[in-house]
């Protein structure tokens, strides 16, 4: 509490919960559509991860290892980018 000397009244601080902007938004997609999109996203990422394991285990050229690893890490970058894209699409909100 603080004393406002000009008016002679006590000022009280009122504790308010923090404003959460996400609570004001409504999901654009229906629940079934969100679950289907999530399942397709997980399936796509699983196939991509399987491909990356296959590429690392059987198709890296040992004679040109530097070039092969550069191409492989570009594909890993594509996997991470796709994961982040799917994550971004997982909750489409609007006001």
Structure report:
With 95 residues, the chain is mainly alpha-helical. It has a domain at 30-95. The protein is 57% helix and 11% strand. Strand 1 (2-4) and strand 2 form a beta hairpin. Helix 1 (31-59) packs antiparallel against helix 2. The longest helix has 29 residues, at 31-59.
Summarize the structure.
The chain has helices at 31-59, 65-89; strands at residues 2-4, 9-11, 26-27, 93-94.
Task: Draw up the topology in text.
Layout: E1 2-4, E2 9-11, E3 26-27, H1 31-59, H2 65-89, E4 93-94
Antiparallel strand pairs: 1-2, 3-4
Helix pairs in contact: 1-2
Summary keywords:
95 residues; 11% strand; mainly alpha; 2 helices; two-stranded antiparallel sheet
């Amino acid at each position: 509490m603080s004393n406002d000397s000009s008016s002679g009244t006590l000022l009280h601080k009122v504790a308010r919960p923090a404003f959460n902007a996400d609570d004001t938004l409504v999901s654009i997609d229906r629940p079934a559509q969100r679950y289907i999109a999530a399942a397709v996203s997980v399936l796509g990422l699983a196939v991509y991860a399987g491909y990356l394991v296959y590429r690392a285990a059987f198709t890296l050229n040992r004679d040109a290892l530097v070039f092969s690893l550069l191409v492989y890490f570009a594909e890993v970058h594509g996997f991470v980018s796709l994961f982040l894209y799917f994550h971004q699409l997982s909750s489409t909100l609007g006001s």
